[in-house]
Amino acid sequence: MTTKNYYIIDFDSTFTQVEALDEMAKISLKNHPQKEEILKQIEDYTNLAMEGKLSFTESLAARIRLLNANQDHLKQLITRLKKKVSASFSRNAEFFKKHADEVLIVSGGFKEFITPVVSKYHIKKENIYANTFVTDETGQIIDYDHNNPLSEEGGKVKLLQGMKLEGNVFGIGDGYSDFQLRESGLIKKFFAFTENIARDSIVSRADHVTPSFDEFLYVNNLPSAISYPKNRILCLVIGDIPEISISMLKKDGFSVRHKTTFEEKYVADVHMVLLGADEKIDLEKLKRANKLKTIGHLGKAKSLDLTACTEMGIVVFDNPRNNPRCSTFIPQRMIDFMNTGATYLSVNFPNLQLPRMEKSHRLIHIHQNIPGIMAQINTIFAAHDINIVGQFLMTNAQIGYAITDINAEYDKELFKSLKQIEQTIKFRVLY
Fold this sequence. Notes:
There is one protein chain. Helices cover 36% and strands 21% of the residues. By secondary structure, it is of the alpha/beta class. The chain folds into 3 domains: 5-219, Rossmann fold (3-Layer(aba) Sandwich); 230-340, 3-Layer(aba) Sandwich (Rossmann fold), CATH 3.40.50; 360-430, ACT domain (Alpha-Beta Plaits, 2-Layer Sandwich). The protein has a 6-stranded parallel beta sheet. Strands 10-9-11-12-13 form a 5-stranded parallel beta sheet. α8 links the parallel β2 (103-110) and β3 (128-131). α2 (20-28) runs antiparallel to α3. One of its GO terms (cellular component) is cytoplasm.
């Protein structure tokens, strides 16, 4: 008999990018003369509780007193929160649909704003555990239900003790109350979720740090909207690089390291390199960078051995005309290539513009340009019963660049077969 898995997910700063009560305060105190001072107090109470420095009960009571909120403010908050769902949760809506019975939202927040936000993601109302507000006859929020265990210190522990879930229970969250579940022994593993905020006191105690929900799905071998978490894609930035270039790469989710030189310790693991205008890569190191997918150069790529890059399947983007906008243009080309496989305006690859994929995985096969390769590729797809959603091919004198979109569920042996085609230069699954 298969052991059932349960996924306990926090709401504030986990399922959503923000702390809901902090956001409600910004709405309810919009015209208050002491707005900034009160907002700071509410934020401090939130952080103290999340770091385990103040009991959750004290923190919650203090925040409710300071809110001065009503039902109209609550409606505005819900609208705001629906736009603030964490990106990695949003793109994995299909996971929640398939695992609706196993996903539980357990939060010290409030059902009144949590339910309308998470219901869109197929999470059942009966699987949402949170506090509830108390309002007066005018709709003013005056208190909360003190009988709810989630309003108390250690509330999540008390709740799960009463639920007696049988199976493997995994916890995902950003705060101390989430870690308490691991400390109590009620969950098998605690995953510190850091897509929105990383609290050192929590990260240091976690079984695993997960910078995105994609990472959680990946390490637990669960179906994901993308095949490889972006936080595992190493992007090395070398030399004098504008801050806007670095922030673009970080914002897209890549693991960015800014260095003055191409350090030896990164050669084997780097996936992306962005070079300053006067930087170059030693050919010997380039040839050992087997995971390298793309190079962006803020100057002219003549300092690179383009023939070697092409032979290794590395897509290069540069700035031959000294365009002042290259600090955003070149990183964007790299991002587009990593996200869609687009090689538009590459200096060494066939130019191919591609649409984003929906509910499918994109396979990139770079090979020597000789007759019959596409026939071999499609024979392998047929042998593995693969449903092809879309296919694109561009060639130049040296290489063929084949893109195939397939349904997200497939036998991983497919990859091995594609890599074994004799003329293969590089193969990868997006991401």
